[in-house]
Predict the 3D structure of the following.
Amino acid sequence: MLVDSHCHLDFLKGDLDNILNKAKASGVEYILSVCTNLKNFPKILEIAKSYNNVFTTVGLHPGEQVEIEPTIDELVKLADDSKVVAFGETGLDYHYDFILPQKQLERFRIHIYAANKINKPLIVHNREASEDTIQALQDYGADKVGGVMHCFSGTSKVAQQAIEMNFYISFSGVVTFKNANKLREIAKLVPLDKMLLETDAPYLTPDPHRGKPNQPAYVTYVAKCIAEIKNISYDTVCKQTTENFFRLFL
């Protein structure tokens, strides 16, 4: 049994029943469909409520432009549902300059405080902002709820700092790319009991399907890659990462 711990079912094109049936046929039993825009949240929650094996989150991606920022209480109210298992994705993204770093940091702080208020974990997006991301997690008490560093792309030092704050390290299809040798070295070092697997579908499609839309069924390729990197069985990777998912979110 496998889990896709991070995808965006609301962004996928095609028949959702068919997509989820393909995932199940591949051994992917549970899926976390992650929120990036609060305008989409009702749709995302409706999808989660329609399938027993799908869960969701509430959050505003650091790159999303909005006229009014959500408050702590607004996020908490939206998260008050058994299908909502985390806050996010939230964090910092310095790759683009759509939103000033200080504004991103304030949004990040609001999500961390909301998570602490009702004791639900965080899904953290970090792109080219590792130092500030770790500092914010430390400053705002994110270790109280923990969470996951989604689609990890940092250094081994960043991974260790996150693990010390009760965070899991999640690997996506990027780890299968031919030019991802550094990331594979980090995956080798991260303990399996602190690891999650994801697709980030419809993005970051793993080899051998790179160039096509990603889907939850393809998390199997990530699991196989991790098994090869760590020289352990595929079943061991599936079992442990599934246990990790349940420990963190459910």
In short: The first helix runs from residue 16 to 25. The chain has a mean pLDDT of 98. The two ends are 16 Å apart (CA to CA).
